Hints:
By secondary structure, this protein is an alpha+beta fold. The protein folds into 6 domains: 4-103, Rossmann fold (3-Layer(aba) Sandwich); 105-131 and 205-329, D-amino Acid Aminotransferase, Chain A, domain 1 (2-Layer Sandwich); 133-201, ATP-grasp fold, A domain (Dna Ligase, domain 1, 2-Layer Sandwich), CATH 3.30.1490; 332-434, ATP-grasp fold, B domain (D-amino Acid Aminotransferase, Chain A, domain 1, 2-Layer Sandwich), CATH 3.30.470; 461-586, Glycoprotein, Type 4 Pilin (2-Layer Sandwich); 599-665, CATH 2.40.50.100.
Amino acid sequence: xxxxxxxxxxxxxxxxxIKTCRRLGVQTVVVYSEADADSLAVEMADESVFxxxxxxxxxxxxxxRIIQACLDTGAQAVHPGFGFLSEKASFARACADAGIVFxxxxxxxxxxxGDKIESKxxxxxxxxxxxxxxxxxxxxxxxxxxxxxxxxxxxxIKASAGGGGKGIRVAWNRxxxxxxxxAVRAEAKGAFGDDRIFIEKFIENPRHVEIQVLGDKHGHxxxxxxxxxxxxxxxxxxxEEAPSPLLDxxxxxxxxxxxxxxxxxxxYDSAGTVEFVxxxxxxxxxxxxxxRLQVEHPVTELITxxxxxxxxxxxxxxxxxxxxxxxLAIQGWAIESRIYAEDPYRKFLxxxxxxxxxxxxxxxxxEGYRVRNDTGVREGDEISMFYDPMIAKLCAWAPDRAGAVAxxxxxxxxxxxxxxxxNIPFLSAVMDQPRFASGQLSTNYIADEFPDGFxxxxxSDWQRDLVTAAAAWMHLTLARRARRIGNGLTSPLSREDxxxxxxxxxxxxxxxxxxxxxxxTLTDEKRTLTLDEVDWRPGRALxxxxxxxxxxxxxxxxxxxxxxxxxxxxxxxVLVLTPVSADLHQRLPAKTPPDTSRLVISPMxxxxxxxxxxxxxxxxxxxxxxxxxxxxxxxxxRAERDGVIKTVGAKAGDSVAxxxxxxxxx
Length: 666
């Protein structure tokens, strides 16, 4: 085993690798850019080396600087994590030339299977069923249009060196190709330093199932079963699970055998993933192979008990696998939710900024489930525009799928983030949907279930009870505090009858508190709720308690009056009023929102790549106004109505914030 390795990556995967190295007694070195100087990975590593400015092309993609960092620190090997240089055969060879071990597959395997164009050629030659498409490079937009029309729409435009959902567009018509091809090429060049593109048929209503493989340098190869990654947004995985609810034993073994055969054919010797597109009838086609550790590897570790990072290190050090296929078995069920810095209420647009509050759920055993949280951030850290917007990977394991879903829903309740937009409400909504519970998944899931975007879910009766009880407790606590501060009174509040206004609903309640137990009588409904084991104090946003002996957590933020309380995907404004005040409040006129239809507003913070209109220009609805880049993705901003450009608020190269006015229409 190595005594010191260098980690050529950042964020949560760097922290993940450090944790395994600490357990094995291996010292770690991390490289970092200016944006990551104060990161958790830098804090945790034994040594750190500065390698350049924030853009990846000027830091994490510079192989020579990383190799020099290995030489300067005496690191014997380098783990590339995922993304960046992890699938660059040239980097693996450069490491070998410098006497440094690359903790990953050999360069031949990377070239044969890591490149998406070459892998399809190899698979076709090996008589493996592949998705129909053009296996070769695309010269330009005209060539892309011609190929797309030969294949037949819809098609997938993909970066050959892509990964992590970057450099992918689905084109449904000629216009989509005209706009999507240059955007994918630009994203590919910026994120991977390789702008080669290929096009394949987009299979509608598919499922995304992948097989984890692991091989050593002695000819041994196993698969560690499958992961289902069908819940995707913009072709980026959002929720993964292992095993897949689609597969039966026979299909699982057939898919695993095909993945192993492909890996053996190229002499694969590390952890890797063979991806398949699967039909609802359990048919499957080889899609591509990722010759690296996958983002979603924790769910495989949770159901097999195998530490994939440890195995990668041992294999790279020349050790043989100590187990065979017959020693592996699926134990329970695991789900991973990717916590992203993005605003689901605004079409999931990136939301960069500082983590003013960061309170993840406690890791380890809980009530019927187990929690794991892979993260690279702490409270006070900043999510930068230069890298992937991932905050954390939250995992829940349970003996069966229903338990894992319920455990994930509870873990998401206990995850509190403030300071920027995040997708926790959306992830909670998926966990609460009957379709997800049934396992009827596809890569169209989000588009099918949220066709008009995500706007939260209507609260259930149970959630209305939770919100009512939490609001009542917080109101009484704050009222007693105000009395004590204002006039020194410490006696209990004499009033018992109140009205809880939650959203549009008005619920008369009678409150009675004895010690740490609050009894809420819903007078109109003739029901009683019991709230106890409360963990909350004024100023804290996360409210934990038990209602009628069932544990829950809600987030509560102060509003102009009352609170805004969210439980999972249900969010509502809440007031606790006297009956007279509630009656008067009901008579107040509703506020009319301002008219912003004339404004083209930036939906996210980012960098203006191009401003495509000028003052005085006539534009039509749907016309491109500008292109904004954020989190390595290019976003096309269009006019929402016809008009004439009155003012332009930004130019190419400008940094803009969310809600900045980009242009105004006359």
